[in-house]
Amino acid sequence: MTLVIRLQEVDNRLADLAREIAALPKHIAEIEKKLVSHERKLEADRAALAANLKERKKCEGEIQIQEQRISKLKDQMQEAKTNDQYRAFQSEIEFCQREIRKSEDHILELMGESEPLEKNVKAAEVSLKVEKSQVELENRQARERTAADEQAARELHQERSQIVSEVSPSVYQRYERARKARRGIAVAEIVDGRCTVCNMAMRLQYFQDLKRGEQILSCESCQRIVYYNPPVAVEDLAREAAPAVRE
Predict the structure, then answer these.
(1) Average pLDDT over residues 99-118
(2) Predicted local confidence at residue 227, as pLDDT
(3) Which distant-in-sequence residues (6+ apart) come within 8 Å of 62 by Cβ?
(4) What are the domain boundaries of the chain?
(5) What are the C-alpha distances in Å from 11 to residues 27, 164, 178, 187, 244?
(6) Residue 100: pLDDT over 80
(7) Helix count (H) and strand count (E) of the chain?
(8) Are the beta carbons of 221 and 198 closer than 8 angstroms?
(9) Using CA atoms, how far apart are residues 146 and 154, in angstroms rounded to an integer?
């Protein structure tokens, strides 16, 4: 019976390792997906900041063009020979000045928009640097953990093969049938006359047969192979807890 209990422990551990080995790549994929999302957001903010700066430079260029036009118009205005010509030059100058004010107002708007963008970009650059380091660390740890889990699984498979070779074929078949039918749990302990997995009480005579340990029995309810650990005597516990007496 000890071998069957150990077989169940080995299978439980192998199942845990398999889940962990399968989960690690998924975890890494999730954090890498978040990293890519954050990188794309940073690139979008950088692009928006670059477009903002480009637009501001365009406005500054337009202001410079209008100022040059105003300078030329003023020179031409001095040569005006009639009032109509003078007023025409003055009207064009006022138009250029309005265009300059529009460009200046737009530059102020762009500057207001660029400030939060610059803060976002700087904060994201710092955050991404930390995040990339963390992802690299978790990647390395995942590879190391996977290698350790795979090595542990290989050792457990070797132990399992050894156990199976020592267990009788009939008992192993019973174990495998129960394991496949009961989601991997083929062995259960009986405590206070009840199966600790399905919680069903055993018939008294059946329980007495189990306690004698003369044969391998199964739970009459869930069909798992059952075992019984006799409680430790109180006097034995007291003897273990008592301090040693010096002679």
Answers:
(1) 94
(2) 94
(3) 99, 103
(4) 2-166, 169-234
(5) 24, 12, 13, 11, 41
(6) yes
(7) 5, 4
(8) yes
(9) 12
Measure the CA–CA gap between 151 and 144, rounded to whole angstroms.
11
- Identify whether the C-beta of residue 225 lies closer than 8 Å to the C-beta of residue 4: yes
Within 10 Å of residue 83's Cβ, how many Cβ atoms? Answer: 8
Residue 234 has pLDDT above 60, yes or no: no
Instruction: Identify the pLDDT of residue 245.
Output: 33
pLDDT at 241: 40
CB atoms within 10 A of CB 96: 20
Span 24-33, average pLDDT: 93
**Considering Cα of 40, then 25, then 30, then 38, what sign does the dihedral take?**
negative
CA distance 177 to 4: 13
- From CA 24, how far away is CA 21, in angstroms rounded? 6
Please provide the size of the chain in residues: 247
Q: Residue 218: which of 165, 181, 166, 163 has the closest Cα?
A: 181
Is pLDDT at 199 greater than 60 in this prediction?
A: yes
Q: Which CATH class, in words, describes the domain spanning 2-166? A: mainly alpha
Do 184 and 173 meet the contact criterion of CB atoms below 8 Å apart?
Answer: no
Give mean pLDDT, residues 67-92.
90
Angstrom distance (rounded) from CA 158 to CA 14: 11
Cα 27 to Cα 24, 32, 145, 207: the distances in Å are 5, 9, 13, 46
**Which stretches does DSSP call E strand in the chain?**
187-191, 194-195, 217-218, 225-228
Average pLDDT over residues 100-123: 93
